Amino acid sequence: MKSGKRAASYPPELEVALLEQIETYGMTTRLVWEHAASLKSFAATDITACLRAMSKNGLVEAHPLHHGRFYFTFARHHTLRNCTSRWRGGAFGEAEKCKVFARLVVGTLYLPGAVPCTAEQHSKLLGEGGQGLSLQFMLQPEQKKVFYPQVNTSLYAYPSRTAQRLRDAIFRLAKLPAIKHLVQQQQFELVLVAVTAERAESILNHFQKYDRVGGTPIRPLVVPELMPLLTAVPIGGKSPKFFA
């Protein structure tokens, strides 16, 4: 069959690039293929063929993203995954899926080259003072930037609650000498990821009313690609297969 020949014809380095993106961000999906530096030189048909082959070989799995679209993760038990990987493989829960997808989109479409910190990088960046902080930091090596994304996935929660969480995060980060130094060097930004501009503006309006946060570098980032995940309504039954 043509699919068999197609699977054998894709560039061998493509498999490595896809596995590296999954290792870096936790998933890959068609939306980012033409934007990711490591993948944009490959045809979508080759990427699909490569994923099909890796799926059959038990390296990756396809899972529903939203409205008939899919994302790919490591297979839960595949043997090639680095034993120090932060990703367990398999599907994410709905809340975690939104956050992992948001970091993937941010790092490929909005802040190109920004990648989530590894545990080793996190420890080196913050030292002992960073214990207990979520591993949410993203690094943009070429720009020598550090980002701390806060992903707001709610369309209806009170914006004041998100503003409160922003303030709590800032007060915690402000106690760390490494973060203070990065702020002084204009190398650190807290990134508010919201679905709509109205939502981001409302949250920041509440946030700016707090004391002692006026000089905090916050970048609002509107990511409409999150909207379909928040409005997808499961209707039961089995999920369609990506490789039918």
Description:
With 244 residues, the chain is α/β, with parallel strands linked by helices. It has helices spanning 2-9, 12-25, 30-33, 44-56, 94-110, 119-126, 159-174, 177-184, 197-207, 227-231; strands at residues 28-29, 60-66, 69-74, 115-116, 138-140, 145-151, 188-194, 218-222. It is built from ten helices and eight strands. It has a five-stranded mixed β-sheet with strand order 4-5-6-7-8. Strand 7, helix 9 (197-207) and strand 8 form a beta-alpha-beta unit. Residues 1-7 and 233-240 have low confidence and may be disordered.
Computed CA radius of gyration, to the nearest angstrom = 19 Å
> Distance N terminus to C terminus?
14 Å
Q: What is the mean predicted local confidence, pLDDT?
A: 83
Which band does the percent of strand residues land in? 15-25%
Q: Number of DSSP strands? A: 8
Order of helices and strands: HHEHHEEHEHEEHHEHEH
Structural class designation: alpha/beta
Low-confidence stretches: 1-7, 233-240
Please count the helical segments. Answer: 10
What about the largest sheet?
Answer: 5 strands, mixed
Order of strands across the main sheet:
4-5-6-7-8
Shape: globular
Helix content bin: 40-55%
Topology (SSEs and partners):
Elements (H helix, E strand, L loop, with lengths): L1 H8 L2 H14 L2 E2 H4 L10 H13 L3 E7 L2 E6 L19 H17 L4 E2 L2 H8 L11 E3 L4 E7 L7 H16 L2 H8 L3 E7 L2 H11 L10 E5 L4 H5 L13
Parallel strand pairs: 6-7, 7-8
Antiparallel strand pairs: 1-3, 2-3, 4-5, 5-6
